[in-house]
Amino acid sequence: MSTAPADTLTQLRDLTRAFAAERDWQQFHTPKNLAMALSVEVAELAEHFQWLPTGAPEELDERKREGIRHELADVLLYLVQLADRTDVDLRAAALEKLALNAEKYPVAQVRGDARKYDEY
Amino acid sequence: MSTAPADTLTQLRDLTRAFAAERDWQQFHTPKNLAMALSVEVAELAEHFQWLPTGAPEELDERKREGIRHELADVLLYLVQLADRTDVDLRAAALEKLALNAEKYPVAQVRGDARKYDEY
Amino acid sequence: MSTAPADTLTQLRDLTRAFAAERDWQQFHTPKNLAMALSVEVAELAEHFQWLPTGAPEELDERKREGIRHELADVLLYLVQLADRTDVDLRAAALEKLALNAEKYPVAQVRGDARKYDEY
Amino acid sequence: MSTAPADTLTQLRDLTRAFAAERDWQQFHTPKNLAMALSVEVAELAEHFQWLPTGAPEELDERKREGIRHELADVLLYLVQLADRTDVDLRAAALEKLALNAEKYPVAQVRGDARKYDEY
């Protein structure tokens, strides 16, 4: 009998599965629809930042921070559901991507080369 | 002395912090810029689904699945970084949101009411 | 003295310029902020479609159609403003792009090849 | 013998209709799919701005400006097609929206009130 707590991503996967099943909402949750829903939530998140001068943390007041927190949660919940419906292990995929990025952007080559950051 | 593995979200937060620090990239990672980057990655994810008839799982071939897997990873990595820069505990925020959603959409009221799904 | 009516895109450019100037809002309208605002409006548009089975026209009721109409207007208004701030002639750019697309997707090669539509 | 040039929006509607018809692509162009395609193009536009310090015009070099021009064109082309498929007169909708916005944000009330811009 395990005493280890479930990993958050696994726990959220199980909770969102149950949530949708209880409401008979799986029928709406095609990968395509979940991808659209995810992009809508991300835009609601971006909306909090759109008119800020630079978007640095000190420009965020309490009201914005609370809104951002809720939208971040929505994004994570749809992300977990989309990964579940497409049989993707989010943890493995993210660790693999980090390893790929480390190869793609070697420290020695990109460090301090701010000007060209988005050209890599 | 703990032997428990770190939770994935904590682990990814630490790894992305180190990744950005080694490259001196934190200067680009304002919350606003991370929110934009997140929305760009989500669109790259959505792109895989845009012309599918319904977007059901059986319409996804291997090539698409591999692309989707990589984009899901990118979305998670930026999400974790944005949460980190805005001091949001993603796990707590997601669990809280699920509880709020459970109240907002009571099973007895919404179950099987597909037609009005998006009007709640 | 011309009696020709102004082209819609020119007219909207002039009207949005005046609108922002009267309110002293040009200071917020950096190209970057307008690009974010545009993506937020597009997401509000996409939201109307996200849970539809296929998104065919007959799935759109009157309420949705009215919402879509307003969001399409918002998208056009931000698009015109972003083009204005980046000195892009939208008409010329669109006609040029159509010509490029015609070369890129020759009728003889792509017609009826639905299966591979998104791989071109 | 025509005496007035067609309005750009009408012209682009006719050209995109012919373009899709020649390639038998209307089958993919449900309003939902066009809305997704539009959001993907807008993200490709946003991508040019994502790491800029403030996104002011002077931060845009020639390479970026050319990319932005092409993406603005793509956005307009999908916007016109989506409006066409949902029977929306873009010109009328935009003029109506501007009138609504003028009422919603009276000059006397919002002018110079930069701090609260996004709270209206």
From TrEMBL, chains A, B, C, D:
Keywords: Hydrolase. GO terms for biological process: dCTP catabolic process; DNA protection. The keyword Methyltransferase does not apply. It comes from the Bacteria. GO terms for molecular function: dCTP diphosphatase activity. GO terms for cellular component: cytosol. InterPro entries: dCTP_Pyrophosphatase (IPR052555), DCTPP (IPR025984). This is Nucleotide pyrophosphohydrolase. It comes from Pseudoduganella buxea.
